[in-house]
């Protein structure tokens, strides 16, 4: 399988109006990493699925994650996998340690707060119902990620009006260009 981009949807998967879905339709060579149970994700199972998807790639892929999948990337980075990725574009990381998180965290706690061993960017909203701005900043700082705060954008998903999200695609394009000058 050839892949440069692996998209990682969050809890409940990304529906037809989500920017990840729009971007995948625009770039059919991108691969959404499948998960067995989008409603009740299990960390260990999901980390293994991500590791297998990375192993299927010919080179080092770029991970494009949303919501809980940002935590998946951080968990995978701690998994001692020998595989490598080129970088990670992390949008609206969910705070699974918050009391208001909508499901059992199923192994995603505690949130890894070690520096990621690859370049990364965190895109955050000032009014995301799944992560407070100070927590998104703390994640970005701990992970060594560049932080981009885009103002009041909800959870940066289809329900928040972020369908094709051309501004986000431009950020990803810039990130990719910086990885491959």
From TrEMBL:
Gene3D superfamilies: alpha/beta hydrolase. It comes from the Bacteria. The keyword rRNA processing does not apply. Keywords: Hydrolase. The keyword Hydrolase applies. One of its GO terms (molecular function) is hydrolase activity. This is Alpha/beta hydrolase. It comes from Massilia pinisoli.
């Amino acid at each position: 399988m050839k892949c440069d981009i692996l998209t990682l949807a969050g809890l409940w998967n990304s529906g037809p109006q989500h920017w990840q879905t729009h971007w995948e339709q625009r770039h059919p060579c991108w691969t959404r990493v499948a998960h067995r149970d989008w409603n009740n994700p299990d960390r260990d199972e999901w980390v293994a699925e991500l590791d297998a998807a990375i192993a299927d790639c010919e080179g080092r892929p770029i991970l494009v994650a949303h919501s809980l999948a940002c935590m998946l990337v951080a968990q995978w980075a701690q998994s001692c996998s020998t595989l490598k990725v080129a970088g990670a574009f992390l949008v609206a990381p969910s705070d699974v340690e918050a009391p208001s998180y909508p499901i059992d965290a199923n192994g995603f706690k505690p949130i890894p707060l070690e520096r990621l061993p690859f370049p990364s960017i965190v895109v955050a909203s000032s009014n995301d119902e799944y992560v407070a701005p100070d927590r998104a900043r703390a994640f970005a700082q701990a992970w060594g990620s560049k932080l981009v705060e885009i103002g009041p954008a909800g959870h940066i998903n289809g329900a928040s009006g972020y369908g094709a999200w051309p501004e986000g695609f431009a950020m990803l394009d810039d990130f990719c260009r910086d990885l491959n000058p």
